[in-house]
Amino acid sequence: MQGALAGITETDIAHYLAATPEFFERHAGLLASLQLVSPHSHRTVSLQERQMELLRERIKGLERKIMDMIRAGQENMVLSDRMHRWTRALMLARSASLLGQVLIEQLRHEFMVPQVALRVWRYAPEHAHLPWAQPVSEDLKTFAASLSQPYCGANMDFEAARWFEDGGEHTQSMAMVPLRLGRAGGECYGLLVLGSPDVTRYQADMGVEFLEQLGEIASAALGRLMVSERAALQPQDPERPSGFTPSRLPVLQAVDLSDGPSL
């Protein structure tokens, strides 16, 4: 008997039983006599009891997954509602000069972000006096342009952290979102910065899809800053094409047709 089992492993036995379900039909008494140790109660149980335990564990695992999906769906719905209200507030801004203020205040209110800062380095001259138009270093512009996606992580004494009201003294984690012209990959013209005293609020391994959408909406809205509102408010003749300049018409000379053919 020992010689017959030589070379047979537990894996071989498992594969045989899985591939030969009729084995237990031929040996029905074996199912009733098998005794296993439950990992939960540490007592001896029958094969049927152990199967029931495994089934209950699987059901509990599925229930947890369903609850996680429901929770994620609810969180996404809340974020969607907040994004809708924030976008609407940007669209209702009365003038381009108010966009920066509306963007920052609504981000703080809707998304409960403790620290928000904004810098834009392309704008119409009339906006140069506003807080978010303050000069930034060329190094920061280069860094912002190099971001292929929002940066999330610890505050490594970034220049952008000093834009916050406390100068970044209490900023432990940050998210930096580049603002670009047109679609993704366009010219970078600004940077939106979110900060928190909580070191776990913005982490390097977190998903950035929501922040990318936030950046796309902010980029589209703040594009109004590059157009002079004074020029935009100048009235134009609706019947005259844009860029049309009337030229002087030639003077027609009178011609005597009395001796010519008649129609």
From TrEMBL:
UniProt entry tagged with the keyword Iron: no
Matching SUPFAM superfamilies: GAF domain-like
This protein's UniProt keywords: Coiled coil
Coiled-coil ranges per UniProt: 45-72
InterPro entries, A to Z: DUF484, GAF-like_dom_sf
Domain of life per record: Bacteria
Keyword set includes Ribosomal protein: no
A family per Pfam: DUF484
PANTHER family per record: DUF484 DOMAIN-CONTAINING PROTEIN
Protein name (database record): DUF484 family protein
Protein species of origin: Ideonella livida
